[in-house]
Design goal:
Elements: H1 19-34, H2 36-43, H3 49-71, H4 79-102, H5 108-115, H6 118-129, H7 136-156, H8 165-191, H9 193-218, H10 225-252, H11 255-259, H12 265-277, H13 283-304, H14 316-323
Helix pairs in contact: 1-10, 1-12, 2-5, 2-10, 2-12, 3-4, 3-9, 3-10, 4-8, 4-9, 5-12, 5-13, 6-8, 6-13, 7-13, 8-9, 9-10
Length: about 325
Amino acid sequence: MRDNSSATTLIRPVIPSRRPTGLWWGLLGVAAFSFTIPFTKLAVASLSPLFIGSGRAVVAAVLAASALALARQRLPHGLQWARLGMVAAGVVVGFPLLTSFALSTTPASHGAVVVALLPAATATAAVLRGRERPRLAFWFITGAGALAAIAFASMQSGGFGQLHWADVLLLGAVVAAAIGYAEGGLLARELGAWQTVSWALVLASPLMVFLTAIAMAQQPPSATPVQWAAFGYLGVVSMFLGFFAWYRGLAIGPMAQVSQIQLTQPVLTICWAGLLLGEALTWTTIIGGFAVILCAGAAVRVRLKPAPAEPSRLPVKSLQSAED
């Protein structure tokens, strides 16, 4: 049989494997998010935290409403609005506002280490929301990651057991974002990925417009062009376009592998803090960040592994009848 015979000709698949594409889209989304904390730190030098946290959501809501109208997306219904409220409370309201106030008094690299707990916190929220029963190791590793983040924050605040209020805000931001990500991930299966984020932005827009008006009345916004550019990035990319790339990567998949790319985000954020803001990286920051990232990665991996199936056990009466 000849080599060029039809029986030996290799036929390429009609739909090629898109795994690398999903990973690249996910990495693009994480790269976009990695600038959020440094640019927030840059903007709070002149703009009020309330204006940054709420104003960026207003900018993103305008883009989201336009995208939904152009795509002619149907309205959510029933319980979906309540679930969108949870997403909006965590991702649109909670995380931006809490991080903006926290970064007004703490370095960006410090914030990046505490926020590095987010992947493990998101996995925990997904476990609780989905009523999963992960291995006991998951809870031990997640607890170790939380203790590592708290220990780092305490050491930076002056000693063990002395948390600064900014650290409390950062930990609250992690919890808020984890709940929003977990609920948003489930809701995206029904509404679509970017649609879920867009509807959450639109739903929260009346509150965020009100808070923006209060912030402008208290302190009229005034900043340098660079700081305005940082604010624009937070509204256009961090709150809107970044989710397009991130959720597209998750949709292409494989989701288990793409989701772990988020573990590179705190590393990138710490690098940007050093390069863009000139923050010195101490050994405490490096060791603390490594410990939190290691625990977060281990927690995500343990959760993704299926729990061992329990051997089936027949009732005692059935066993006795079988022996008879």
